[in-house]
Amino acid sequence: MATNPFIKYVNKTVSRTDWQREVEALYNNYYLISLLLASPSTASAHEVSKLRRLQSALLKTIEQFVAELDQQTKQTQSSSAMVCLLKTHVTVMQKLNGQIGNLLKEQGAGVS
After folding, report:
1. What secondary structure letter does DSSP report for 112?
2. By CB distance 3.0 to 4.6 Å, which of 17, 25, 47, 92 could disulfide with 43?
3. What is the rounded CA–CA span in Å between residue 103 and residue 109?
4. Helix (H) or strand (E) holding 16
C-alpha cells in the first residue's frame, strides 16, 4: 500500500506526536470506555451517562476529523490549510482526551 506523498509532507509539517498520538488516544479511550460500560460496575447513573456522552463525542470527533481531512484533501493541496485543520483538530482531541482522563481518574478514586 503506497502512502500519499501529501500526507507524508503533512506528517513532517505537523509533528506525528501532535496529531497521530491524539487520534490513537481517542481510539484507546473509546475502547476503554466501551469496556467500562460493558462490565458490571458500581458507577452511578450520572457517571454512566457521562461516559456515554464522552464515547459519543469521541466517535463524532473522529468522524468529523476524517471527513474534514478528506474534504480538505479533495479541495486543495495547500499545506497551510492542512496544517490549520490538523492543529484545530489536535486542540479538540486534546481537550476531549483530557476530559476523559479526568473522568477516569474520578472513577479510579471512587473504586479505591
Report:
1. -
2. 47
3. 10
4. helix 16-38
